[in-house]
Amino acid sequence: MPSWVPPVALYMLKGLAVTCELALISGVAALTLGVVLGLLLATDNKLLKRAITLYVELWRGLPLLVILFFAFFALPAAGIRLTGFQAAAVGLTLWASAVTAENVRGAIQAIPAGQMEVARALGFGWIGAMGLIVLPQALRRLLPPTLNLLTSLIHGTSLAAQLGVLELLEASRRSSQRLVLDAGDSHGLAIFAAVLAAFYLVCAPLTALSRRLERRLQS
Amino acid sequence: MGFGYQLDPGYVVAHAPELLFGLVWTVVLTGIGVAGGILFGIGGGILRAYRVPIVSPLVAAIVEFIRTTPLFVQIYFLYFGLPELGIQMPAFTVGALALVVWGGAYNTENFRAAIEGVPGHFSEAARSLGLRPATVFRLVTLPIAARFAMPSVTNTAIETLKGSSLMLAISFPELTDTTMNLISVSFRVFELFFVLGAAYLLLSAGLSRLMRAAEHALAWPG
After folding, report:
1. How large is the average pLDDT for residues A202-212?
2. B4's torsion region: left (phi>0), alpha (psi -120 to 50) or beta?
3. What ipTM score was computed for the predicted complex, to two decimals?
4. Which residue of A has its CA nearest to B74?
5. Does residue B137 register a pLDDT over 60?
6. Is B193 part of the contact surface with chain A (CB cutoff 8 Å)?
7. pLDDT tens by residue, A130-184
8. Residue A73 to residue B169, Cβ atoms within 8 A
9. Would you call B189 an interface residue with chain A, using a CB distance cutoff of 8 Å?
10. What is the mean pLDDT of residues B130-149?
């Protein structure tokens, strides 16, 4: 093994840990927020629904990179100062929560309205009927798109490199630049191939699982 | 506005020519990405759906790899990795190539699913009328499959538009790169983000309207 590999690999592994941390934090935040917004979309409150639809259309419609830049550069001008990591987490959460809200809305809509009506007729409150009757049935349909979203979210963390967050891609970029300065050779081919491989290894199980669940749903 | 920030819409007006250039590059990149992606997608979809020996699993593996890795890293690989093999491409070529390959991978899946979704009795009927397999595909299967594929192809097209913003990483002066450069020299964040966001929302609305028009033109007669 060439002598440049071990320190670079170690540096990249530390970056991978930051990638996982960023994906985990924004994933949990986005799923929580997205499920709440998606449930609210299933209520009858017109004004609330319009506001949430606007939120969903906005953050789903913009390129993720633009959202991250917005969180990093525009929020400070409004008095909210964030580190690169925090801005990336906020941006990823805005985007992924909008996607989740839309997924949840779709999954709930696919459950026949009679389920809700019968539950309400049996004396369940809206929350009870939604939480105990409708949502558990919607969950089966919700799982594949949620796994796909998690894959996209993990992919999306690489954009945080553009905010200077020392995640996998940024760690690799810096390693490559450092190698140019030290020895005049960037080793870009090996390094960026390794980044691709790392993302593949992390995401392949998720996409495989999603595909299996989807196939089961269809049969 | 508070926080000592004074809105100055005049700044955007003064820099409209640069922003328009960026917009044009974004449209060009997206156009190439969408068109190339559809062509590769049809080709890949055919190879996959008809399980052409050796080629089909190869295409499947490539498609799977591209879909499972981030477009952003793919761009880095093409721009900073490939020169080591002596393949040095300008930013525009890398951007267009990355979008075509990425869109092609997604569209391969879209067209594979669409071709496999065409009921078998259509092609059986055409075969029994004496048409050759290639003719059956060209006149019967593909026209039906193209209609099935439209919604997912439209999604991929819109993702291609959004993906074009990633060319900022290789300093290609498309819309996002142009706008962020203006922000870094002027700090006119709100005006410029407003313009940037509105541009992408309008572009994607326009793109989906264009695709819907195509879908309409393709709609079944009667």
Report:
1. 95
2. left
3. 0.93
4. A196
5. yes
6. yes
7. 999 999 999 999 999 999 999 999 999 999 999 999 999 999 999 999 999 998 8
8. no
9. yes
10. 93
Contact between chains at A188 and B84 (C-beta distance less than 8 A): yes
How many other β-carbons are positioned within 10 Å of the β-carbon of residue B82?
A: 17
Distance CA B118, CA B163 (A): 30
Q: What distance in Å separates the CA atoms of residue B46 and residue A147, rounded to the nearest whole number? A: 27
Give the homologous superfamily in CATH for domain A5-218. Answer: MetI-like (1.10.3720.10)
Q: What is the mean pLDDT of residues A62-76?
A: 96
Specify the pTM: 0.93
Question: Helix, strand, or coil here: A169?
Answer: helix
Residue reference for tokens 């790392």: A198
Give residue limits of the domains in chain A.
5-218
Query: What number is the average pLDDT over the span B20-25?
Result: 98
Which H helix or E strand runs over A12? helix A5-41
Contacts of residue B200 in chain A, CB cutoff 8 Å?
61-63, 66
B197 touches chain A (CB under 8 A): yes
Angle of helix B55-68 relative to helix B16-49, nearest 10 degrees?
A: 140
Note whether B81 contacts A189, CB cutoff 8 Å: yes
User: Residue B176's closest CA among B152, A78, B157, B184?
Assistant: B184
Residues on chain B touching A189 (C-beta within 8 angstroms): 77, 81-82, 84-85
